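Hey,
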Amino acid sequence: MKKRFPPAIENFIKNYVRDLNEGVAAVFAGAGLSRMSGHVNWHELLRDIADELGLSVDKEHDLVSLAQYHVNENHGAGGLARKIIDEFSEHSEPSVSHDILARLPIRTYWTTNYDAMIEETLKKHCRVADVKHAIKDLNVTRPKRDAVVYKMHGDALSPNDAILYKSQYEQYYKTHEAFVTALSGDLISKTFLFIGFSFSDPNLDYVLSRLHVPANARRTHYCFLRKEPDAPYKGEDEEAVRYRQRKQELHSQDLRRFGIHPLLVDEYSDIPVILRAVEERFLKKTIFISGSAEDYGDWKKDDALNFVHGLSSGLVRAGYRVVNGFGWGIGSAVINGALEAIYANPEKLSEDQLVMRPFPQQASNGQDLGVLWQQYRERMIGLSGIAIFLFGNKKEGEAIVNAGGVRKEFDIALSQGVVPLPIGATGFMAKELTSELIADPDKYIPIYPWLAKDLEEIADPLVGAEIIQQSIIAIINKLQGA
């Protein structure tokens, strides 16, 4: 059963997916995001510092001032710098949230964190990060970058330049004016998701207090906050529960001054679930077309190619992206159909709606071609949320046999949570897969039980190419809101 979210979360998912499609989605990451990967938060970072001062970090709320006390007491920030190196320079595994945010086509990441989790996770997902952690970085552009990561408070590998204590925060708008200007511009032109911030994180207040975005130029941004629970904490009475809930309500209202809409979650573990829903909905706008054809079965060759051409063109005109591996016998029709639609309406449609990934035909660097193809298929299908399977045959000697590659792509789609749409009317492997899906929808499409009936209705070529084509697009449209 598909998880249903509260209306505010559903609205966020819809709007943020729209912004992803338009290329204006951004992320602002706080300490909580890094904590998901095992790094400490500000409280834990300053625990030893507080002990040295004879204070208790659990009793302090102004942690930036606490850091300043340590600098004053020790006549320098060397101890804080060592803490930064010790705590944030070690490698950690990315969290689920890191992975999802790196896979999404987000091109702008801001963070107050000192660790390298964002840029390392981008690299893991084959994306090139242009990291900016000092003023001198801002006027240099890394070639072939996929994303810019602004580390506005510095980097663990340059701890002496990091923003750590109160006097640095107070002077930030002077010492780092270029960062403030860049962030102000992004807050006007992009939709931010603030993630990993809490009441105890000093960074958010200091950052926002230095930003003066005109009210008429503010976009709607979003921030995850953990909802204060109704149950009392240890040692609390009912009055204390009401007090912290009221404080959260007022804090949420205050965030709206900056155009930030709070998204309240019951537990922090809900956040990756919501992000995954964003990713799934975004991916559903990308359609992978799998298939190959040496023979077209019940179809005349020209009719079959016109059908594939019209389907690809119709998908692009409907606003979808098409991914294709240039399958034998149908790849050219997919590409020509998409390009025809794009060039007929270049003001509305974009070449970005066609992703071509021809298979490598020779192994290199000692790689096994079969292994290479498997990895290639996994990456290609991973770009999509829906996969259409057409025809699926090849020639072995003098015989026409069902294509094992199409079966492999079907299995990969299932393993990656991609919705499979085998079109039985095209015959061969597509027909075989359709029969299996219709016979056991709980196995293949448990979230979309209605899909089996819809696919069965277009499993016969006598239905007609135009109706089949229209029905496929109608099914995909239906899946967008499912």
